[in-house]
Amino acid sequence: MKIECPRCQQHLEIETADVQTGTSITCPQCSAEFELAIDTEPEPAPPPSPVPPPFKKALIVTTGNEITGRAVDQYLGIVRGVVVRSPTSTQSLFGGLEKILGGNIDAYTQLCEQARTAAFARMTAHATSLKADAVLGAWQQAAAPVCF
Description:
The protein is of the alpha+beta class. The protein is 25% helix and 11% strand. A two-stranded antiparallel ribbon has the order 1-2. The termini are far apart.
């Protein structure tokens, strides 16, 4: 057991079998005499570490019909993510002007990208609700916006 002299802070090592509470020790360096007070209670156990949340596997989405190294255990059905969007009047106005000038129509590109993102989110939410861990053969279909 390692102890320290309260007067000179000399580090001492003594045999644990020879020591009891109240045992008188004389420091070899400063000749100070002191009594030991030994805790008989074991040190409290450290608090348990917080339990991490269960690992959530990412949903795999592929346009292919298989995933290398994995087998289809169960077919859960078709998942969908249908979104129908129409351009706002502002998008229609700017889209119409860009259509006259030619080139890429940014207003419609933005509309299509928003619809694609929303459809993908709906499809993955549907698959997750079925407790799927993958979507095979995923595809997206888009149609040109119709402006009146």
